[in-house]
Amino acid sequence: MKPMNEMSLAFPSSSSNESFARAAVAAFVAQLDPTIDELSDIKTAVSEAVTNCIVHAYRNTIGTVYISCKLYENGKITIRIRDKGCGIEDVKQAMQPLFTTAGGERAGLGFAVMESFMDVLRVTSKVGVGTVVTMHKTIERRSKVSVKGKMAEE
Amino acid sequence: MGVRLILKEGELTAVLSGEIDHHSAREIRETIDDAASKVKPKLLTLDFSDIQFMDSSGIGLIMGRCKLMQVWGGAVRIANLPPKIEKIVSLSGINQLCTVVKGVKKDEADE
Lengths: 154, 111
Prior knowledge:
Chain A is of the alpha+beta class.
């Protein structure tokens, strides 16, 4: 299936870009007319993935975070967040709730949140190469847009 | 993002506002810990009523304050969670570390 719209972003892994990244993705997916709850889920998942790039992938350094997002006619959204950072040695272990290598103030819930707030979460990683997080979520199509469009034409 | 601190009868309340993520959590943490370490309150209330967004960094923030308060035997209470952040709070199971309350009035009498 061909996406009806897509976008991509690249930005440095400074923590001030966390809010930019989730707001940018939210603004883009807004054209599918998601509910407030769906939008909040997506923003949270994006924030978690981007934070991982900043805290883990590019720990003590600044690299580039890449986001691409595709929207489909049936309401499906795919978001891919990629880095060229240190990579994850054991993805399965990293995805365990409460597991963290950052210590102290990190809850170790990033992947658990992405998993439960999105429909599908896939993580692939190679040490020294980087990590790709792919997330899907299908939002309810309320067909309000087409109705509104018709009414406007009349 | 902001923190407003209210100290009353040995209890410290931090009224949080804006968005809590990994970036903003640091300043919130420093502001709270600074005051709490001086006062050593028996109760620290974190008021979330003006929070628009929170990711798991907010859970880390709560966990960290629970740990700090334990040093002198104090407790943490989290108050007025907006519906949109209830989901992440319940997912985290943080309610096993601290009490969650609703309808705590914001004390307008600033210190």
